[in-house]
Amino acid sequence: EAQVTQNPRYLITVTGKKLTVTCSQNMNHEYMSWYRQDPGLGLRQIYYSMNVEVTDKGDVPEGYKVSRKEKRNFPLILESPSPNQTSLYFCASSLSAGANVLTFGAGSRLTVL
Amino acid sequence: AQSVTQLGSHVSVSEGALVLLRCNYSSSVPPYLFWYVQYPNQGLQLLLKYTSAATLVKGINGFEAEFKKSETSFHLTKPSAHMSDAAEYFCAVRLSGGYQKVTFGTGTKLQVIP
User: Fold this and answer.
1) Residue in B94, B98, B104 nearest the CB of A42
2) Which tens digits make up the pLDDT trace of B27-45?
């Protein structure tokens, strides 16, 4: 089944404790992206990647890192999480840019205490 | 540059009534436009997309949207609301010409009243 898989789905952590949210897709998509969803703010793009070793900042990249060493994986790294990073995170992928549709993961709900 | 504005964070309609969710966009080049739906505790899934082939676009579950360049709008409609349409709806824009970024609106929660 074609899908985007995120892990963990739920996580509670404390300020400053490094964490990684993994994202993997099995559709050979070139484009991958991370979003955070907050009430009243919709989805805001954190980082995106057009292909292996090619990443770029979205609208809210502060406090996050990403890497794209393999085509299928695009992990989101929070080096020193803070409470304002408590949010619902979505990974998405598409074949390429343009009119191609994004396929979303099920989401990862992160709470930083 | 690109942006999307969705008017109305919450919309309530009666079952069987017309659904109208508004989306206006801003873009420096011809856009690709999308409507996604998010059901509770799920990720987003595509309802429909505009890619310049036709201005009236039909999607899944009876939804459709019309691209109006003069009004920079891409409103989503459905003639008759069902209870199962209760969800949050997001409009999104991606620029043509190889631009990578996809920008989403703030979302509209649709409530369907029996």
Assistant:
1) B104
2) 877 888 999 999 988 889 9
